[in-house]
Amino acid sequence: MKTIRIIPRLDIKGPNLVKGIHLEGLRVLGKPADFAKYYYENGADELIFMDVVASLYERNSLHDIISETAKNKFIPITVGGGLRTISDIKEVLRVGADKVCLNTAVIKDPELIKTASRKFGSSTIVVSIEAIKEENGKYLAYTDNGREYTGIDVFEWAKKVDESGAGEIVITSVDKEGTGQGFDIDLISKISSIVDIPVIAHGGAGTKQHVVDLIKENTIDAVMLSSLFHYQFIKENESRISSEEGNIEFLKQKRSFHTFEPCNILDLKTTLIENKIECRI
Amino acid sequence: MTKNEKKVIIIDYQLGNLFSVKQACDTIGLNAVISTSKDDILSADALILPGVGAFIEAMKNLEKLDLINAIKSKVNSGTPIFGICLGLQLLFTKSEEFGSANGLDLISGVIKKFSGDLDGEKIKVPHIMWNRIYMSNKSWTETPLRDLKDYEFMYFIHSYYVNPDNLDFILTNTNYSGKEFCSSVMHKNIFATQFHPEKSSDKGISIYKNWGLMNKLIP
User: Fold this and answer.
1) Are A196 and B122 within 8 A, CB to CB?
2) How many angstroms away from the CA of B160 is the closest CA of chain A?
3) Which of A23, A110, A223, B5 is the most buried (most CB within 10 A)?
4) Sign of torsion, CA B90 B92 B96 B98?
5) Domain that holds residue A43
6) pLDDT tens-digit readout, A199-244
7) What confidence tens digit (pLDDT) does each residue in A60-93 have?
């Protein structure tokens, strides 16, 4: 039986943890270290850090956050955002990441998947695919957090990613991401049926039931979640919300919570097990 | 460093993330140093052979660094060694990766790739999952797994698995989509895991601690 991995996703901007809607309109939620600690203790199977602005401004500011996390959180850590070259990858692995997540760079240069997986091992290379559904029903891959049009068909790209030697695929529905309206099950099912490598589903979960429905319909291997867990953390730790930049007033008003029924990782895993979906508790 | 402190060498053959292995050692008070040096290996009280990546690449690097004979002679003379993931596989005779490649041959057996099809169902490769380890025909009492319960979850990330010729060396097995494979071995001074204890939360760290204690590397 397959054990489903539950992976909290931490979007990072400078020193802060942020969250957007459709990968845009970022809001500051707090300190990445506080969230990482909470998720580790709460049973996260892995952590993923995405430097959400690095891709745009070509900078890498994650190294300190990765090293601090890797010092005492003994679960796999994936890092993405702005990684362009073999030496960028080498550098984040050196400071404590176990895997890297690539999107923009490999769409520009698909050969990088081959080179990187030969050099670091397939299992180290995760490729993120950001999908947007066009009016004609076609799904196209975007880069730079859903900002940049590429014209590339998502399913053809997924096959190519698999054949090029990537170890895993993250499939994000940009349309659903941050909305809490549920996953794009059609998109995710199709991706997981056409590739032979593990698939991580991302984008749209608003409730535990959304996650259950997704896994029951699919052969996916992992689910990546952010809002659902972040809002729960904030509920439980209101007094600790602090930040040096950005407007956190909206957090205190809880305005963005209405489409979500936040839960923590343990709650979610308990529900999955009740639904006969295996996961690690 | 005090005079009687035991020294553990984490063998660096320039593949994969050694940071977490070092952190795991630090956490439990193991005096571990990451090194590519033959002299360090020859003077070590114990060795850790970690690794992520390709078997052939790893053997090539070990050869380039002139570490193969050093590792073999140390292990043959009784120095404890702890192999992790690719480090486990390197201890074996050979791998079927890209045809065939020779390993350190400290344990006799062959490395095989998970095949794409099992019972008609597609098996996803790599096997990336928290999966259960369960007892083979050996008790865990006298092993680094002694604090774990049978069927504990550990973190796996690999495409190949080991097939030891001597089944008595198998410490645990794991089942992936109906395929049972050897997930750890123990034979005299050799202990090695296919999973990553340093990525398997506090349960995994207990394996480091017990390995250190049993080999008298930590007080």
Assistant:
1) yes
2) 11
3) A223
4) positive
5) 5-274
6) 999 999 999 999 999 999 888 999 999 999 999 998 888 755 555 4
7) 568 889 999 999 999 999 999 989 999 999 989 9
